[in-house]
Amino acid sequence: MNAKTAISIIKNEIKNRKIIPENELLDLLNKNEIPYLLIDDIIEFFYESQIEITSDNNDTYTHPKAPSHITQRANLYKKTHEELLKSPGKDVKEQLFSDLEKPRIQASYIPLTLLAFFNEADCDGNVSIDKIIQFYKDYFELRRYRKQVVERSDSVFANAIPSDDRIKALILFNPLGRSFLVKYFSIDKNGLVTLNHNLWEALTASDISRIRGISNRLIDDYYKKL
Predict the structure, then answer these.
(1) 15 inside domain
(2) CB atoms within 10 A of CB 188
(3) Are 152 and 56 in contact (CB under 8 A)?
(4) Residues 27, 95: one domain?
(5) Most confident segment among 31-35, 52-56, 137-141, 188-192
(6) Are 193 and 85 in contact (CB under 8 A)?
């Protein structure tokens, strides 16, 4: 399926609506088997059509007159991604740790994605999206088993574990599509998630331990606020 076909399907589904919740958009992608890698083309269509995509935390991905701060930030991340691919690993590592100390954590997905990656990555800094999905499922199931707060009440994980496709859409839409992680990770059409090669080569065992520690702290801080 190409972008033109995907947009045609989405247009037919939403009719003349000018606002659509993020969760509903993800459901439409799954329902119509639209490849998640076309999400940027769909977002661009919504922007040009003055259609807003609202997220669970009431942020807006598009705006009728100008790109929202989220869209602008995501575009900046993508530009930075290209620059960092050419940068020395030491510099990329410093940037990553700087970002980790000041992220906007509005859900547990950013630090959880980092934990999943560094738990499952192979020796070349690659991991399949399927392994990250399974890590998510195991993580939230364990919290539920321990009778801990699983997630916010409006999260897809709050009451049950969603389907693999739904989890995949969520991961590609936000942690690996809209958050600062875009600067460091890429994902190909086969679902292989790869860390910036120069960064991977520069990371030591101590660095990875530090990333895990920061991620766990961010998650702990997040749940304390729920």
Answers:
(1) yes
(2) 11
(3) yes
(4) no
(5) 137-141
(6) no
Q: What is the pTM of this model?
A: 0.72
Label residue 204 exposed, middle or buried (CB < 10 Å: 0-12, 13-18, 19+): exposed
Range of the domain at 157: 86-224
String of DSSP letters for 130-173:
HHHHHHHHHHHHHHHHTT---S-TTSTTSSS---HHHHHHHHHH
Q: Look at residue 174 and tell me whether its pLDDT is greater than 80.
A: no
As a whole number, mean pLDDT of residues 155-179 equals 83
pLDDT at 71: 59
Q: What is the dihedral of CA 29, 30, 34, 36, to 10 degrees?
A: 80
Q: Tokens 């701060």 appear where? A: 69
First vs last C-alpha separation in the chain: 40
Same domain, 17 and 93: no
Residue-wise pLDDT tens digits, 177-216: 767 888 899 998 889 999 999 999 999 999 999 999 999 9
Percent of the chain clearing pLDDT 90 (strictly above): 38
